[in-house]
Amino acid sequence: MQMLAVHTTAKRTLSFDDVPPPRLSPGRALVRVHAVSLCGTDLHIFEDRYPTTLPLVQGHELTGTVIEADPADRVRAGDRVAIDPLVACGACAACRGGHANVCQNLSVLGCYQDGGLTEVLSVGVDRLHAVPDDLPLDLAALGEPTSIAMQAVSRAEPTPGDVVLVLGCGPIGLLATLSLSERGVTVVAADIDPQRAALAPVFGAAHALSVDRDFPDGAGGLLLDGLTEGAGPRLIIEATGVPASLQNAIRLIAPAGRIVQVGISAGHAEIRIKDLTDKEIELRGSRNSRGLIPEALALLGRHREAAQRLVTHRFPLTRLAEAFDTMADPGVLTEKIIIDVERSGR
């Protein structure tokens, strides 16, 4: 018996291959992949703009059903699971210090080793997390990006009553807004795309701003001044990765405020050192998550309507190229695209 696996073999080139299914091995389980959620990293790999080695089976935001496991392990056939794609070494200084999310030898399913765009995947049992009964498996594929957003919120350390500015209403910004909304803070979400900004109230934003690159001129500036007595927000989560947006955050943050950079970019932001010292700004990075997928699944379960709104497109596995073309089209609003692997139509 063979199974389908889709390899990205070169720039914008996919190979739909019949391959032998994996065999059960100690400490691992076999998972029938149900759904994969695509993100910007997937598009970068597809376009050969990401530092990895091809060919590669992509897909790092995924869910499925266990079909075989060692009877001695904690999972059983039939279990509905979300998969944590991070594979840390457990031995480096970061891992020993409890920061496996920034492991010096980190690997990631679907980014540096074969991932979920296949029918059956062998996964370490410690990477599997139970999906709550009331959360559909396709929406549970959002657990991984939700955990990244929650890591950024954790790094921000919000307290009730804070005014938090979220820059960027893509999936991570919206999911961070959702997490913040449960913490008793006032969230102001901003994006240069009015359609994306319009989604923010669904995720709990008290105020949603469609802005231009001169933000916060005009009404946006007046709003922030009114909410913060002219001091600026105490917390800012930068979720775009655009250098100018980080520069804006440094300009806008309140004295003794905290900025969390979760948006990813290889770009360079010009920062005046004096701006950091004059206001005693805390500038923190945020990467991956420290085991937050269970909490992320619970958050999605409490806010299924928002999770459903985040999914803008669905494709079967056999139409993966069309899904990537949709992501790359600047004229199409895409938040999350779900690839229905189990309904591939083969």
UniProtKB/TrEMBL annotation:
Cofactors required: Zn(2+)
Extent of the signal sequence: none
Transmembrane segments: none
Domain Alcohol dehydrogenase-like C-terminal as annotated: residue spans: 171-299
Domain Alcohol dehydrogenase-like N-terminal: start-end pairs: 26-133
PANTHER family, sorted: (R,R)-BUTANEDIOL DEHYDROGENASE-RELATED, SORBITOL DEHYDROGENASE
Family: Belongs to the zinc-containing alcohol dehydrogenase family.
Protein name (database record): Zinc-binding alcohol dehydrogenase family protein
Native source organism of the sequence: Microbacterium kribbense
